[in-house]
Amino acid sequence: MADNPSTRRTTKVAIVDTVAMRHENGAGCSWRGQSFASDAKGIVRVPVLAAAELLAHGFIFVTA
Q1: DSSP structural state of residue 60
Q2: Which has the least CB within 10 A, 7, 20, 49, 62?
Q3: Which of the 8 DSSP states describes residue 62?
Q4: Domain locations in the chain as residue ranges
Q5: How far is CA 50 from CA 4, 7, 12, 13, 33, in A?
Q6: pLDDT score recorded for residue 15
Q7: DSSP string, 2-58
Q8: How sure is the predictor about 63, in pLDDT bands with cuts at 50, 70 and 90?
Q9: pLDDT tens, 9-54?
Q10: What is the pLDDT of residue 7?
């Protein structure tokens, strides 16, 4: 049986797959065990896949 490469895929987030978000308290965040620190302006760059969950916790989209 041939080795199917689709069964070996892992999800890796590239920088182009991120969005800038901010929380009113300027805090960083974590998502799926990975921490994301905020910069001096309180902005975090997070994977696009994390955005929906972070919106539910008070984060908003920003133009970085």
Answers
A1: E
A2: 7
A3: -
A4: 17-61
A5: 28, 23, 13, 11, 12
A6: 55
A7: ---GGGG------GGGEEEEE-TT---EEETTEEE---TTSEEEEEGGGHHHHHTTT
A8: confident
A9: 656 555 568 999 999 998 899 999 999 999 999 999 999 999 999 9
A10: 56
- 3-state secondary structure string across 36-48: ECCCCCCEEEEEH
Classify the C-alpha dihedral 56-38-30-36 as positive or negative. positive
Give residue for tokens 């994390």.
Answer: 50
Cβ burial 4-24 (10 Å sphere, 16+ → b, else e):
eeeeeeeeeeeeeebbebbbe
Identity of the residue numbered 58: G
Residue type at 61 in one-letter notation:
F
